[in-house]
Amino acid sequence: MEALDYREPQAKVLHGAQGDWEIVIGMEVHAQVLSKSKLFSGASTAFGAEPNTNVSLVDAAMPGMLPVINDFCVEQAVRAGLGLNARINLRSVFDRKNYFYPDLPQGYQISQFKHPIVGEGEVLVDMEPGVARKVRIERIHLEQDAGKSIHDMDPSLSFVDLNRTGVALMEIVSRPDIRGPEEAAEYVRKLRQILRYLGACDGNMQEGSLRADVNVSVCKPGDYERFRETGDFSVLGTRCEIKNMNSMRFIQQAIDYEARRQIAILEDGGSVDQETRLYDPNKGETRSMRSKEEAHDYRYFPDPDLLPLEIDEAYVARVRDSLPELPDAKKKRFVEAYGMTEYDASVLTAEHENAAFFEAVAEGRDGKTAANWVINELFGRLNKEGHSIDESPVSAQQLGGVIDLVSSDAISGKGGKDVLDLLWSEEKGADPAELVERKGMKQVSDTGAIEAAVDEVIAANPDKVAQAQEKPSLAGWFVGQVMKATGGKANPKAVNQIVREKLGV
Amino acid sequence: MSDLTRLTIAEARAKLRAREITSVELTEACLAAVDAADALNAVSAKTPQKAREMAAAADARLSAEGEGAPSLCGIPLGIKDLFCTEGVASQAASNILEGFRPPYESTVTARLWERGAVMVGKLNMDEFAMGSSNETSCYGPAVNPWRAKGSNRDLTPGGSSGGSASAVAAELCLGATGTDTGGSIRQPAAFTGIVGVKPTYGRCSRFGIVAFASSLDQAGPMAKTVRDAAIMLEGMAGFDPKDSTSADLAVPDFEAALTGDIRGKTIGIPKEYRMEGMPAEIDALWDRGAQMLRDAGAKTVEISLPHTKYALPAYYVIAPAEASSNLARYDGVRFGHRAKLGAGDAIVDLYEKSRAEGFGPEVQRRVMIGAYVLSAGYYDAYYLRAQKVRTLIKRDFEQAFETVDAILTPATPSAAFGIGEMADADPVAMYLNDVFTVTVNLAGLPGAAVPTGVDSSGLPLGLQIIGKPWGEAEMLDIAYALERSAGFTARPDRWW
């Protein structure tokens, strides 16, 4: 894998009344495919439309209607698979998962059960610089989303909105390789980052574009290693599935609560029931939704309305060629090519738009300097105002111009920040060099002029001179006075040097 | 009755193009015949106004285009109730689709209307195409225009396309659409002395046809002659991007393929179709049919289709399995029948009551069988095994077609039986009607039923020609040769 070297983190340990426990987590992440139309119909997927307006005859399961696969969605699933270093299955099969529910008009969900489009892959979950967890992906399959049932609008009636019915989801199933609540949240963050890089999913968790079902169990230290050696699930604890989580914070809270709940049961001599649970963020607890016994018999069978989905190597190769540089590779390249820290590289590559902006700034300039300006000055300002990079009032070209002015000593670092502030507000769109010229912000680097100013300050403050010669750190006071006297335009580096020369410190 | 209804499609086409008759005249004749045939209960929804409008439009087109007008321009047809027709009752003969008028048109009917065909009405059938006697219909059974000599007993026209068969045999329309999942075109065609063609799976679009068993369902024509069936099939067939199982293949000129010259063809006679307890008349008919083909210059050879005996049980696992899922959408929520709920009833009660009230007993039986064979723990033993059988049956045919051009079998194990005659019988007795036809559906092949003779009581009997995949043209040519040799010209007496 094209990634920086790393070591695996320690599994999270919870201290029970009777000893230590570890957590084992596997996740099923449902990522909505970023497509204009649904998986098997031409209806729009636009978020926020009036209820039941994005519904085709197929979505409403009218008699005689038939599904037709959306090729774009297939391509996105293949992209996601390649992005997760996974095997692409050239032949996959859509199955029907049968159950009755008002927001499922067909009476079945079309999904992929036995033969998913994507097989085994892996994701590197970054925990901190140099530390990452490799999480194995079991499979990715394509399936239809269900509609929405609304139970709280009327005391006796339920309402159904079919807008989401049939929207394409990729279900990304991990192996139980996640070993703590923080890792779980970081795993989702990493998946989201990769999917956003690929353009396969917008990752918008508030709108439900990315949701996770979390399987949690607890075990004694050493059990997990035995499981990895033998593949025997029975050495692990009984798991509970927490459904439909759409916030990283809630995922962490729910896992923490659920693990402690299971530990309490086990330490009390009880046993954990395999069941599906829901997390209530208001109460901060999980509660039972349905037990294993109540689980549906979904009567899966291949959907006879759809032929097996067949793609060929050439198709996969074409998709592979169209992939962008992915986060791990980009981060590695940033560290190696620009000499920046892994931390800075992580920050810059969090979103591919950010990375692209940085690279535009760094083009023909010192990478580390560019990284500092982008991270500290640009991102700092954007974060304060809650803007994303594409809303930045200052372009990469402008920021590059500011850096050039600082590097050439035309302005000081402080002056550069002032210029950036101006470009941010009343001087939007201005050319930095022209602005500095126009506003007379250029710093004075003329040694003669600075020497004159230094001489003046020294002459006026003989007592301070004596003090400074005793205690060289007081030289800074002279520098400040000179800067003040020159209206902040003197080159601080030059001032510092001349002050020290003249004071003989 | 006007003699116009007696015309074949090919004859009417010539007269229409020559402007000897108008489509309006022809259509009025059919509408009158429909009105006079209520006793047959073949028509579930009459559409006279639509028919007259379509006929007038067809006449305008015939005047403008003359000999260049499509073959079906101005031809009155009946449409099985399983096809969704825009704004016209389309209920699959089920109470659960009570009052359902689709806002869309099936691809097959849309293609017919594009070619200028005229709809005289929707035709009776077994509920959701599940049945072999038209007795499971919510409209009550359609009646066969044929009666046994010296008997007044009402006979079944077969099923599920019983209304289509009855309507064509009684000359209420010049042709009709049917659908065939396990024999639902060919068995009723044989029972009523007409031609019924089930095309290769994927030849006709299933879009807009109420689904019974998606991997088996196929629309096809029911007509008075092989030529008419060829003309209709050409109008119905063709690739449809809205049906993923529809084949992207050009539609041949089926009518042009009707040469009747089958010299040098090899016809397989499968020994496994000679079943124990088969009426001697059927056996004799089959032998006569083989002789007719030999007389026309073909060679007949005995072949073996060794897995035939497993076909019926496999079919009655696969078809109900798919049906149980396909019929889940009839839940009383969005369209069709919704049960009145009592206080405290929840969503499950809505489902259970609506479906219990809306589905008849045969549909309920098949939904339950289907849910059972797909359920955890039984899937492998039933559904998966049935699929394996299906593969073997397909292979049987593939091997047979290495040496033969077509296969000749009986179409049905008997002539038409009496309505109500099977009421107390085991459901399996009714399922046995499909014994010669289901193999064709399981293998996805084309099959045609051709009237070949009458039994001792004067009731029609048919033989089946099974063709190679996508080999409808050749199959129809052989059927045409058989039709010419058989010279079946008998018609039912008009007692209705």
From TrEMBL, chain A:
UniProt record, GO biological process: glutaminyl-tRNAGln biosynthesis via transamidation; translation
Coiled-coil parts of chain: none
Top enzyme class: ligase
UniProt-listed Enzyme Commission number(s): 6.3.5.-
Boundaries of every Asn/Gln amidotransferase domain copy: 356-503
Superkingdom of origin organism: Bacteria
Molecular function via GO: asparaginyl-tRNA synthase (glutamine-hydrolyzing) activity; ATP binding; glutaminyl-tRNA synthase (glutamine-hydrolyzing) activity; transferase activity
Reaction(s) catalysed (UniProt annotation): L-glutamyl-tRNA(Gln) + L-glutamine + ATP + H2O = L-glutaminyl-tRNA(Gln) + L-glutamate + ADP + phosphate + H(+); L-aspartyl-tRNA(Asn) + L-glutamine + ATP + H2O = L-asparaginyl-tRNA(Asn) + L-glutamate + ADP + phosphate + 2 H(+)
InterPro entries cross-referenced by the UniProt entry: Asn/Gln-tRNA_amidoTrfase_suB/E (IPR017959), Asn/Gln-tRNA_Trfase_suB/E_cat (IPR006075), Asn/Gln_amidotransferase (IPR018027), Asn/Gln_tRNA_amidoTrase-B-like (IPR003789), GatB (IPR004413), GatB_C_1 (IPR042114), GatB_Yqey_C_2 (IPR023168), Gln-tRNA_amidoTrfase_suB_CS (IPR017958)
Keywords from the named record: ATP-binding, Ligase, Nucleotide-binding, Protein biosynthesis, Transferase
Transmembrane segment boundaries: none
The protein's role, per its UniProt record: Allows the formation of correctly charged Asn-tRNA(Asn) or Gln-tRNA(Gln) through the transamidation of misacylated Asp-tRNA(Asn) or Glu-tRNA(Gln) in organisms which lack either or both of asparaginyl-tRNA or glutaminyl-tRNA synthetases. The reaction takes place in the presence of glutamine and ATP through an activated phospho-Asp-tRNA(Asn) or phospho-Glu-tRNA(Gln).
Similarity remark: Belongs to the GatB/GatE family. GatB subfamily.
Quaternary structure, from the entry: Heterotrimer of A, B and C subunits.
Protein known as: Aspartyl/glutamyl-tRNA(Asn/Gln) amidotransferase subunit B
Species of provenance: Albimonas pacifica
Taxon lineage: Bacteria, Pseudomonadati, Pseudomonadota, Alphaproteobacteria, Rhodobacterales
Gene expressing this chain: gatB
Automatic annotation (TrEMBL), chain B:
Annotated GO MF terms: ATP binding; glutaminyl-tRNA synthase (glutamine-hydrolyzing) activity; transferase activity
Gene Ontology biological process terms, A to Z: translation
GO cellular component: glutamyl-tRNA(Gln) amidotransferase complex
SUPFAM superfamilies: Amidase signature (AS) enzymes (SSF75304)
Domain spans labelled Amidase: 25-476
PROSITE patterns: AMIDASES (PS00571)
EC number: 6.3.5.7
Catalytic residues, chain numbering: K80, S160, S184
Annotated catalysed reactions: L-glutamyl-tRNA(Gln) + L-glutamine + ATP + H2O = L-glutaminyl-tRNA(Gln) + L-glutamate + ADP + phosphate + H(+)
Similarity annotation: Belongs to the amidase family. GatA subfamily.
Role summary: Allows the formation of correctly charged Gln-tRNA(Gln) through the transamidation of misacylated Glu-tRNA(Gln) in organisms which lack glutaminyl-tRNA synthetase. The reaction takes place in the presence of glutamine and ATP through an activated gamma-phospho-Glu-tRNA(Gln).
Protein's name according to its UniProt entry: Glutamyl-tRNA(Gln) amidotransferase subunit A
Gene name of the encoded protein: gatA
